[in-house]
Design a protein that fits this description.
Elements lengths: L1 H8 L4 H13 L3 H14 L4 H13 L6 H6 L6 H7 L5 H8 L3 H18 L17 E7 L6 H6 L11 E7 L7 H8 L3 E4 L5 H10 L4 E4 L9 H4 L9
Parallel strand pairs: 1-2, 1-4, 2-3
């Protein structure tokens, strides 16, 4: 409502069109998202973020018309410009859609990771033992997607298969409880399940450290909803 009000006041606000498009993407309304990103570029062709988001939205609905022409605009950008053009935690992920050269994709992934490290540099660091602290390895799995979601599908049944003479399994959920069988499986097939969706990055890291986790596995990498900052506080070895 606020964005539409702003655009009624000034329809040339390219950034407002982008934000409105993002709202439509969150609602899985890609057609209207495409309209918003297109309007943003019409008013401000220099907004490379709008072009990135437009490509991603069109690919989501298999709209291939002139897609290569849109993609080719990125081939002339240097690494720093690419970092600006691909905003948000999904930047390296979206770069896969663009078919960028491997060196560009690597640069983007490293840039995003270093930015996460910069944001968490003030967090207290902890010494991590080089051997399991409790006799058996305490493995923690961190994700926003322990639900009816591809990650939930892939992990379904896997927790129960861990050899409990070698490891104990701990799950840390940063996402919502959708009441699905996938969520119930994640809760019941592990030694400990914690919902840390309302915890800050630092609070979540403290919880995981208190649990004595030896290895924390981030199941999301740099996709939407990732809480990679938690692993960067030094509670465990960041792993994707």
């Amino acid at each position: 409502t606020a964005l539409r009000l702003a655009l009624r006041h000034d329809s040339t606000l390219g950034e407002a069109h982008i934000n409105l498009g993002d709202a439509f993407v969150d609602a899985n309304d890609y057609s209207r998202a495409i309209d918003s990103y297109t309007a943003s570029l019409a008013h401000k062709p220099s907004l490379s973020q709008a072009r990135t988001k437009l490509i991603a939205a069109r690919l989501m609905i298999c709209d291939w018309a002139n897609i290569d022409a849109l993609r080719n605009r990125f081939s002339t950008l240097d690494s720093n410009a690419l970092s600006v053009a691909l905003p948000g935690s999904n930047g390296p992920f979206v770069s896969l859609m663009l078919g960028l050269p491997m060196h560009s994709q690597r640069h983007l992934a490293v840039s995003w990771t270093m930015e996460i490290g910069r944001r968490t540099s003030a967090y207290p660091r902890r010494d991590i033992p080089d051997r399991p602290m409790h006799g058996i390895l305490r493995v923690g799995y961190l994700s926003d997607d322990f639900r009816d979601h591809p990650v939930g599908h892939i992990m379904h049944g896997l927790f129960a298969l861990h050899d409990r003479t070698q490891v104990s399994v701990h799950v840390y959920s940063t996402g919502r409880d959708d009441g699905s069988d996938y969520r119930r499986s994640a809760e019941h097939d592990v030694d400990q399940f914690r919902d840390i969706s309302q915890s800050s990055h630092a609070e979540a890291a403290d919880i995981i450290a208190t649990d004595g986790i030896d290895l924390l596995v981030n199941l999301q990498g740099l996709t939407a909803g990732a809480r990679s900052e938690i692993g960067f506080t030094g509670t465990a070895t960041p792993t994707s």
